[in-house]
Amino acid sequence: MRKVQSYCLLIAFLGTSLFVSCKKEGGTDAERRASGNVIIETGELAAVNSRSITVNRYGPRWYQMKIVGLLNHGEIVKRGDSIAQFDPAEVNKYILESEGNLETQLAVLEKLYVEQENRKQESESKIKNELAAFDLKKIELDASRFESERLRKIKQLEYDQAVINLEKEKRVYELNKEINASDLKIQEIRVEQIRTELANAKSLIPQLTLRAPVSGVFQIAVNWQAPGQNLYKIGDNIYAGNNLAIVPELEFMKVNTQVNETDFLKINTGQKVAVTLDAMPKVVFNGEVAYIGKLCRLKDQKSRQKVFDVEVRILKPDERLKPGMTVRCEFL
After folding, report:
1. Do 328 and 40 touch, CB atoms closer than 8 A?
2. Domain that holds residue 71
3. Total number of domains in the chain
4. What angle do CA 215, 221, 225 make, to 5 degrees?
5. I need a labelling partner for 279 at 20 to 30 A (CA). Which of 62, 126, 169, 310 fits?
6. pTM for this one?
7. Alpha-carbon distance 111 to 122, whole Å?
8. Any domain includes 173
9. Looking at 182, 205, 228, which one is the last position of a domain?
10. In terms of domains, do 72 and 148 share one?
C-alpha cells in the first residue's frame, strides 16, 4: 500500500514539473523575455533600396514647376513607368521666343556679312585710288628733276602727301579688318548661344515627364509649403531640389528594430532571426542581423530605457511584405 502511494506521489510530482516546464516554454512574449532565454523585439518593415524622386533645376529660368499629372499614392510601378508630369507651357513659350530671337539674330548676322563685304570693297577701292595717285606723284617727281628747285619741292611735297594717304588707307583697311572680325565673332557667338539655349530648352520637354527609377510602390511626399502640409497633388507648384516622392523597391525588405542595452552583447551580425507580421502571426519569415548600431540611445523621449538600433534583412522576397508593416523579431 505504501509503495502504491509512493508511486502515485512520484507520478504527480513529475506531471506537475512537466506542466510548469511546458508553461514556461510556451508563455507570453513578456514571460519569455523575462526568462532571459530569448530576445523578442518589435520593428517596422522598410525597403532595402528606396529611391527619392527630387525635382531637378530645369535650366537657369525655371526654379519651380507646376504639377499637371501625378500617379496615385500607393500605386505599384515598374521601372520606367510615368509617375508625374510637369506643365511644359513656360518652356514652350521660351522655345517660341528663342526661335523668333534666333531668326532675328541670323538676319543681323547676314546683314553684317554684307555690310562688312561692302566696306571691305570700298576700302580696297580707296587703297587702289591712293596707290594710283602715289604712282602718278612718283612719276611726276622723277620728271621734275630737270625743273626748277621750287617746282621740285612742290612735287616732293605732293609725293610725300601721296605716301601718307596710301599708308593711312592701308592702316584703315587693317583696322577695319580687325574690327569687322571682332564684330562678326561677337554676332556668331550670340547666334550660337541662342541655338544652344534653344536646344537645351527643347531637350527639357521629355524630362518634364518623371519616370520610376526602380520597381516598387509610389509614395507621394508631403508638401511642407502648403497649408495643412498635405501630400503633393495636381496643380501644386514644386521648387527645384524638393522631394516629390519616394519609390521603395519591394523585392528586398528589411526590419528596422532595436534591442535593449542589456541584450546588446547577445546578438551578432549574421545571427538568424524569425520575423512574423502582426497581420499574419502564424507565418514566419527568415531573416538575419545585417547591422548593429554602434551608439546607444534613449528608446523615446518619455522613456529612460536605452537601446541599440538593429537592422534585420529578410532573406527571401515575398509579395506580402510591405513597407511600414509592424513585425515581431525573435533573435534565435
Report:
1. yes
2. 50-87+208-248
3. 3
4. 155
5. 310
6. 0.65
7. 16
8. yes
9. 205
10. no
